[in-house]
User: Fold these one by one.
Assistant:
Number 1:
Amino acid sequence: MSLTFEARLAQRQFDVELSMGPGERVAVLGPNGAGKSTLLGLLAGTLRADAGSAALDDRLLFDLGAGRRRWLAPHARGVALLAQDALLFPHLTVLDNVAFGPRVAGATKQQAAATAERWLREVGVSDLAARRPGQLSGGQAQRVAIARALATGPRLLLLDEPMAALDVSVAPLLRRVLRRLLVDQATIIVTHDLLDAVLLADRVVVLEQGRVAEAGPTDEVLRHPRTRFTARLAGLNLVRGSFADGAVHDASGLVVQGTRADPGAPSEGEPAAAVFAPSGVSIFTDPQQGSPRNNLSVTIAEIEPLGDLVRVRGDDHHGHLLAADVTPLSVAELDLYPGREVTYSIKAAGVTIYPL
Amino acid sequence: MGRGSVMGRTYAGLPRWLYVSAAFGALLVILPLFALTLRLDWSRFFELITSESSVAALQLSLQTSVASTVVCVLLGVPLAMVLARDRFAGQALLRSVVLLPLVLPPVVGGIALLYTFGRRGLLGPAMDVLGVQIAFSTIAVVLAQTFVALPFLVVSLEGTLRTVGHRYELVAATLGARPGTVVWRVTLPLVMPGLASAAVLSFARALGEFGATITFAGSLQGVTRTLPLEIYLQRVTDPDAAIALSLVLVVVAVVVTVVTARIAERGAR
């Protein structure tokens, strides 16, 4: 299966182009309102684009625009959608829910039941076959919903934050089930959770304000984020600017020294990003001098616990909210509180610079 | 009662004067029904309701009400689905017009029907050609009852459809179900409790229909004289019979109310 997709929907300021190779799994990330659900709706056929076209293999999903009005109804697309809520049909048993897809595709009752039993086994809930959806826990219901979606043999599976409504204790187990079942299953997974992207996807696409802001292999995007959103998701600080003299200079005059990433180091004057981890930041209450450190004066904006450490977010007066991870002891010793002026000190060796 | 109520476990927080008003409201409904049973000649009750004209009226009423309920379901379910699911120009207007018989005096409905299906009505010439004569026939009774009962089914079912939501239907579509399959295998089973109580409501409304029926269908024993019409006529000639038949309708109404409440309760669970 391969997908080509480009669509515009003015009402939601959506303009996205996307393609997928055979069996590829893509994670779609982005802030709320970035267009993630719109993307899924357009692919599933629950939303209609103003203009654009999409094809799944040789099957045209839609071709809309001036003089073009081709549009395939959702049921004929071979695109299954799994949402946050399992949405199991409450009037059917678990088995009949999973058998629904094969049944409407023309399978006999026995064939459909056999398919359903096989998928219930795959997701590990065979023993629940005779139950009604109302008698299931959230995690069980979502497993059944996965079985129901996969039992249709979809060419493309759409997952809309499938773990978001689940208990934190249940999500990891379900993620493992998906990781096993989604091998070679063309999938688009919309998520807020970095773990989903890392474990379930080969590639990530970051949407921002209805546009693709960033795309690439998951590990590459997380190591070298290009947008603040992705950097934050990856737990990194990001400064964008242009490269000169071994440093990234942003438009407001902020300079961050760093080490050029290999391969693909930026050349002089080229747009570049500087990235550093919160753990590489030291905080001083008195002004610091001397290379090869970056010394940035910031105003502390918020202080929040982060496991054994404390994450301090500071406003650098250049439009960045930079994170630093320190021990609770340092917070006490340095007397850190929101509103206090401090200096973030980062070793140049701890900053990675790469072209944008 | 009141602030010290031990029946309910939660504090109601209502002022006392409110209970007084509520009691008057309840009495307004209960007292007339009570008065009716007081005036009833119990010794002749069975005789009165089994007289030839009573049985004919009762039979006709049940038959026409069942028929109009069936028509209401056949026409009202699609109408409710279109109103609840699709969006189109003039939808709000269509909804208002469909619900009009709820607020319209039934006798006005009867006149409107007469000028549609009557001899000199809008469709009169067409029906003359076909050799069909509807006005003042049993079919007219069913039409009149359907006219007044349809909005009950539509408004109640549309509410149910909106409560159930569109999401199960979208899921079914992405699982490969055609729109027709979705209606039969997902939408209808999901709204079945709501549809059942809506149908019972329309049945009750059809059973009680008077104004539109007498205007459009007339009052011909065994053909168009339904129970409410019979009661109205007997009221002059034989008040005891009118009271006895009224009580029959009261009992039917009570049964309908209980059944609807039961269905709604089961649907909520």
Number 2:
Amino acid sequence: MFTIKAHNISKRYSYRLFSNISCTVSTGESIAIVGPNGSGKSTLLKIMGNIVLPDSGRIEYVYNEDSIPAHTVINHAGIVAPYIQCYNHLTLTENIIFAFGSVTDDAIEILHRLNMYQHKDKVLHTFSTGMLQRCKIAMALLKKPELLLLDEAGSNLDDSGRKILYELIKEIQPCTAIILATNDSREAKLCHRSIVLDKGSGA
Amino acid sequence: MIKGLVRNILKDLRIEFRSKVVISLILSFSVIVTVSIGFASGGIIGSPIVHAILLWVIIFFSGMNTSHIFYREIEENTALFNLMFYSPECIFVSKLFVNCIIMIAVAAIVGLLYLFVMDVSVYNPIGFATMMLAGSIALAVCTTIIAAITALAQARGGLFTILSFPITLPIITVVIKSTTRCFSKEIFSSFSAILFLIAFSALLGVVSYILFPYIWKEF
């Protein structure tokens, strides 16, 4: 059981991004962060994943009823985001071996589902952006994370790719806490709740 | 930790042998400069201290290119991907190991090339070899932590220069002095210099290991 409790989170750069956001997400729950461009969706997602620190407020991470240090959250997280990439000079198989040690049956299954199995021995820099997005999704899900952070996870995917992604999200929802930042209303509808960010004025 | 180390080291070496960015930079710089000095001087440089200075200047500037191994993680947005699977400590130690391997190779190639091109006699080959090994490891430790600090900075070029000056100065001074003695007929023991380099590397390495998780965040 994994829970994130955010209390009065605020962040500003040269302008105020958002302020006093509080929410709780636990295993089996999903939350969508929506709002216009520049409203701070990705920043809030990064703050929830302890990738970026908030200016004020605090976040509590609870794993199996014990509080865990913020810097260990990444060990429990799978991330699909524009600011995270697999190694482009390695093949998909080499990326999987780097991360997990071997290509397991689970890996083969998920590669088949994402239609990437036939490309597993190709170097990633030969892939299209859509194929790279599928690689990121595969790597994040193969980790079997307690927390899944999805930042525009459907971007660059074709219709079939989005359909597969939505199916996978639905499948892992019961055993994962999911935070999803998106502009796509279809993706937001996959989640139980939403945080709507209004540009500059908070949630 | 061990599995993560091995996987990160193999990954970095595999990426480097495929992209050849660092290897090309180091080889082109070291070979061009060494051969150019050899041709330009025409063998008239006779002073051991001048040879020692030139040799370590070439090794230093060639070795600084290993910082690209850290920068690549930031430029290609793979740092967070790596952190998703391995601890910052594991990433730091693996990068340090890769930098040491490259730095030792650089010192070996540049050292042999320099001795051959400049026709320098080494009167204490064991002391010279040990000095090259200890000096290159010390420089690798410096490069690794400075690259880690500057990787997330906007003006990394300037910051790298400023930070590397005080850290590398004692190393360069010690290795130049000891290498000079290896090139002269003077009988000496390089033990104290090697001990200094090992102690300096160990201290810097341990401090860097402790600090790295605090540096390597906020992507």
